[in-house]
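Bench notes, afternoon.
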Amino acid sequence: ELALRLGWLLPQVPRGDAVLDLGCGAGEFSAALTKAGAEVIAVDVSAEALRRAQERVPGLDARLWEAGEPLPVADNAVDVVWAGEVIEHVADVAPWLTEVRRVLRPRGALLLTTPHHGPTTLLALALSPRRFQRHFDPRNDHLHFFSPVTLGRLLDDLGFEVAEVTPAGGRIGMRSTILARAVRP
């Protein structure tokens, strides 16, 4: 799904925009955004992930986000926050999204993707007890499961103007992704 997410993300980020790659991992998206002309700040909770991102993108502004601390980014500092396949791993999404809103400039965009857990996905899981058990294993690193409706409501409740929440990719019964764009008023 990397191509799907890149194909959706890159056209929405104007050249020269300041972009926070939140949960940057190994830096695949930081690299693509940098190549497209964005000014990227990469943030992750893992020092190892940041090391790999800096290896992939020499000179990358990479910052560690320590647990319980504010995002290591100034208020109103970025035009776009990109969080690809991250929100489902966040223990408490309300403070996380509040920090995202804080660092976005007014009219800045939050662009995020997360696995889609709509009725078709849940039905497919329910029909396979083995897949269901594996998917919802409490040791899994996915803490939250979103549908377009639940994600849209969450973003709206936390003060974003929801512009798009759309499922994409996958086949019936297979994993698909939610593409979401919300704007800070």
